[in-house]
# Entry
Amino acid sequence: MREEDKPFVCYKSRWSLKIQPRNATGWKLSFLWLLAMLPQTGLFMWAMGRHPGGGLAAVYTLLYTAAMALWGWRMVVWMKARSEIFDMDELLAIKRQQDQQARRKGR
# Structure
């Protein structure tokens, strides 16, 4: 997939990672990922409605939390693979270098 055709843009800086939709396709794919969350949330709500207290509630909550963490991680990995990645640290280093060269020429 060419960089221009990728549906997401990823801005990376040290420990920070920001992925956002680039075009209508990116928004549609993001929406589909959110729809994939609904069945597991509905199942969790149904299970908690049947057994609201006790040990089963803790098990359901733990399973739901683990499923949501896995779902979120897979979404980030999937979107990053379909993103044009901009390394902000690298871009800032280039900008600093250009600024230094411009200051030297101005002397």
